[in-house]
Specification:
By secondary structure, the chain is an alpha/beta fold. The protein has one domain: TIM Barrel, CATH 3.20.20. Helices cover 37% and strands 13% of the residues. The protein is globular.
Length: 338
């Protein structure tokens, strides 16, 4: 679906108070501060989506101080569509603000046929970023990630590709995603020895998916690497969307690739309802509380949200109104989600 023509969108001028509307945290021990809420384009920016809404989401995000837009080569559908559509919107609205933006992309999942379009080889990562830059119409990205570990490619090759990308000026910083604590330590060490620090790690993290807590968060803190959590709402489960069953418009009904109906069990719904009650007592929506619960930990630099409307984005931004939890609240939440 094409973006509607300029008749429906006046020339964009960013809100003058945008930096007063957002809170920022330093990313590890770097010079970069990230907004505590960042915008992910994993969903809702493909060719099957209403890109008029997408353009409104991007404008609203920047107007509220969200300076970080996160993409990947295979976001769509089809693969590459989110980057291409973002590129169109960037050229229409954000070219004057390029130096105020952190734009990231990734490679590591399947992208094109054959042995050179997946995982973490030097050939794949460098070729993929070249294609990403062309789709977005950018000279460089601010952050480029290895999207997942590759069990068959030497870690030195994958990290060497990230180092080469920085040396070539195609990315200012590099990061990793979904690496466990041990691999993270090894990757950071290799990059440091090459002279390219690892800026950030992007793990999946939510109230219902806490794999980072036993060791990864402490490892990142010790190494001075930032953390940006994706899927903070567990693909919509940690919202009020499913409190009364499965709406036909939900992702679980429309597209079961990332969230299937089988994941939304009576036991899960019981937890969601209990958490919703706690959120209401805090004066928050469940989604707001779930985001705030992540940000209560200062090791979490930013939370990456994906939204289908500007209104939903603003609801998420209001999470920042209250990211403090009493011990009693934390104990109650822990009792529910364990």
């Amino acid at each position: 679906m094409k973006i509607h023509d300029a008749y429906h969108f006046p020339v964009y001028s960013a809100h003058s108070s945008r930096y007063d509307r957002m809170l920022y945290r330093r990313c590890g021990r770097s010079g970069i501060q990230l907004p505590m809420i960042s915008l992910g384009l994993w969903h809702n920016f493909g060719d099957t989506d209403d890109l008029t809404k997408g353009r409104e989401i991007l404008r609203t995000a920047f107007d509220y101080g969200i300076t970080h837009f996160d993409l990947a080569n295979n976001y769509g559908p089809p693969f590459g569509a989110a980057e291409e559509n973002f590129g169109r919107m960037y050229r229409k609205d954000f070219v004057p603000y390029r130096d105020e933006l952190i734009i990231s992309s990734k490679a590591g999942w399947d992208m094109w046929p054959g042995p050179y379009g997946n995982f973490g080889s030097r050939k794949y990562l460098i070729a993929s970023l070249d294609k990403s830059l062309a789709r977005m119409g950018l000279d460089y990205v601010d952050i480029f990630y290895s999207h997942r570990p590759d069990p068959d490619t030497p870690l030195e090759e994958t990290m060497g590709a990230l180092h080469q990308i920085v040396q070539q000026g195609k990315a200012l910083y590099v990061g990793i995603s979904q690496y466990d604590a041990k691999l993270t330590s090894q990757a950071v060490k290799i990059l440091k020895e090459m002279g390219t620090p690892c800026l950030i790690h992007q793990p999946r993290y939510s109230m219902f998916d806490r794999w980072v807590e036993p060791s990864l968060l402490n490892t990142l803190d010790k190494l001075g690497v930032g953390t940006i959590a994706f899927s903070p709402l567990e693909q919509g489960i940690l919202t009020n969307k499913y409190l009364k069953g499965l709406p036909k418009s939900s992702r679980a009904v429309r597209d079961g690739r990332y969230l299937s109906k089988e994941h939304i069990t009576p036991s899960v719904l019981e937890k969601v309802k209990a958490l919703n009650d706690l959120a209401e007592k805090r004066g928050q929506s469940l989604a707001q509380m779930a985001i705030a619960w992540l940000l209560k930990d200062e090791r979490v630099t930013s939370v990456l949200v994906g939204v289908s409307s500007a209104k939903q984005l603003l609801d998420n931004v209001r999470s920042l109104d209250n990211i403090r939890f009493s011990k009693r609240e934390l104990d109650r939440i822990e009792k529910v989600i364990k």
